[in-house]
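Our preliminary data section would be incomplete without showing what the modeling component actually yields. Below, a chain of 199 amino acids is followed by its predicted structure, encoded as tokens that our downstream tools consume directly.
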Amino acid sequence: MTRTLARLVGLILLIACMPLLLILGLVVLVLQGRPVLFHQMRSGKGGHPFKMVKFRSMRDLRDANGVPLPDDERVTAIGTFLRRSRLDELPGLWNVATGDIAFIGPRPLLPETITGLGERGVMRGQVAPGLTGWSQVNGNTLLTLDEKIDLDLWYIENRSLRTDCMVLIATVWVMLGGEKRSKAIPARPANRSNTQPAD
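Predicted structure:
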């Protein structure tokens, strides 16, 4: 899919999903409070920064020293539902419509995370990040950063219409059944120092 076509489809889907976006936004507002949306700078194609948007799923809770509490202590009940169903990503259609991201590609990471990856970060930035992608449907939050990057680089080297169709189908299954670690990925100890904000 060309970038122009992807932007057009993203805009059409954004408009079509507006009723659902409004309902979800109202639910987040009532159950979790303001702000409804979460914005954060992420690294796009070629390292170009952009502001990612999604539904907020965590509260800004901090310890006595002002350090944010662990994600699992800040995520709310509605946030858990939104994450599990991937509906928290729905506002990201705006990023597709503006051309910041594609429908399918590596998950957009923080600029400092990409910089810390060195050459692997440069290689990963050869394609636009995506609303969903190969690593997102093969474990996502159940994977270490290194495992995610391995999957992202595999996708970049092997991307095709067939692979993209597989990702789209797998995305639906993840939305319905939740995340599952791919059996093809060997188990590794979690590297918590390499994780990015999950919200």
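The chain has one domain: 3-181. The longest strand covers residues 37-43. Preliminary results of this kind motivate Aim 1 of the renewal.
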